[in-house]
Amino acid sequence: MNARDFLTLAQNLAIAGNEAAWRSAASRAYYSAFHVARELLEGLRFVVPRAERGHAYLWLRLSNCGDAHVQLAGRELNDLRGERNRADYDVTRSFLQAAARGHVRVAQRIIQILDSATVEPTRTAITDAMKVYERDVLKEVTWRP
């Protein structure tokens, strides 16, 4: 499956006529961006943990990669996760269609930025910066030669 298929589904859900669909749109938009980020880091030879730990793993490294655009994508990925949590877990608060559409746009922007990070020289620059961040700050090296 292509992670971008979640984004297509999110776009369709965001134009639907009910709150359950809008909430699902926010969730699918996040997971589309999440999986694109996972694919990027795995392609750079980082070992991304599965399950719950993968979320923080991704946004922390992206947010500390030395490239302003990719760092923005990392912060937005973290923010989008918070919105996904609100959509999925806080069902007592209303969730508007405008919010769903906004979350879809953010996911699109994140994916666009991450796609642009797959080409040189950005690819090598962010890899090197994330390796240093892991070694010096996190003290947890997950990059594999």
Give the topology.
Elements (H helix, E strand, L loop, with lengths): L3 H11 L4 H25 L9 H10 L5 H22 L7 H20 L5 H17 L7
Helix pairs in contact: 1-2, 1-5, 2-3, 2-4, 2-5, 3-4, 4-5
Counting H and I runs of at least 4 residues, what is the number of helices? 6
Task: Supply the CATH class.
Answer: Mainly Alpha
What is the straight-line distance between the termini?
27 Å
Mean pLDDT metric? 97
How would you sum up the major sheet? none
Oligomer: single chain
Structural class: mainly alpha
User: Which CATH-level-2 architecture?
Assistant: Up-down Bundle
Helical content, roughly? over 70%
**CATH T-level topology:** Four Helix Bundle (Hemerythrin (Met), subunit A)
How many structural domains does the protein architecture include? 1
Envelope shape: elongated
The radius of gyration computed from the alpha-carbon positions, rounded to a whole number of angstroms, is 16 Å
N-to-C SSE string, H for helix and E for strand: HHHHHH
Unreliable runs: none
Strand content: under 5%
The count of β-strands is 0
